[in-house]
Amino acid sequence: MYRRDAEFGKDSSAVEKTSSFSLPISRRRDGSYRMQESGYVYACMTSDFFIEEADEWRKEAWAFIKERSDLSFFIITKRIERFHVSIPSDWGDGYENVTICSTCENQSTADRRLPVMLSLPIKHMEIIHEPMLEAVDISKYLSTGKIEAVTCGGESGPDARLCDYSWILDTRRQCLEYNVPFHFKQTGALFRKDGKLYHIPRAIQMSQAKKAGIDTRRSNG
Fold first, then answer.
1. I need a surface site. Which of 19, 41, 77, 173 has the fewest CB within 10 A?
2. What CA–CA distance (Å, rounded) separates 26 from 89?
3. What is the pTM of this model?
4. Which CATH architecture does the domain made up of 2-8+35-212 adopt?
5. In which order are the strands placed within the sheet that holds 40-43?
6. pLDDT digits over 123-137, tens only?
7. How far apart are CA 130 and CA 164, in angstroms?
C-alpha cells in the first residue's frame, strides 16, 4: 500500500478521507450515479476498512454501501476482530453486496483471524495469502463451506520476503479438495520454484503468475 500511495505523492501513515470518498453516491446533473455497476468496488485498497482512525467515517461508508445495493463491495482486512465497530444497526446476517476478505500471511495469522471471520454474520467470505510467507494449512476453515475463494501471492518491493511455489500449490490442493475457487495473483519479487530462486521485476509478477495456469473455479460436481 505504501508503494501505491507514493505513486500519487501520498503519505500512507496519514489516515484521511480521500477526495473520492463519496464517489459511490455521487450523481450527475441528470440524477444518475457517476459510478455505474461494474464488477467489484474495492474499499480502502491502500489502507484497511476497519482501521481505528476511521471508525466515524466507516458509518458513512456503510450507508453508501447500503444505498448502492447494485454494486458489489470487496473489503480486504487484517483487522477482522474489529468488524463489529461501527457496524450498521440493520446489518443482520450481512449485506448481500459485501464480500469480506481476511488476509493471512502465515499459519499464526490464519489461526487467529479465520475463526473470528467464520463466527461473524457475513454472507460472502474469502481468504487472501498475500504476502504468502510460509505454507499455510486452512483445510479446517475451507471445510466449513463458508469460504468462497482463496487468493495467493508473493510480496513486492525491494525488501520482499521469499514466496515458494510449493506453498502456492499446497493451498491450491486444499482448495481443490474442498471445491473452493483458487487464484494465484502474483509471484512477488523473490520467488522460489523447484529449489531455484528468481528475482522477478514488478512489471511481470502478475503475468508470470497467470502463465502458471493454476487458477481454478468451483466445479458443479
1. 19
2. 24
3. 0.88
4. Alpha-Beta Horseshoe (3.80)
5. 40-43, 72-77, 98-103, 124-129, 147-153, 182-186
6. 999 999 999 999 999
7. 12
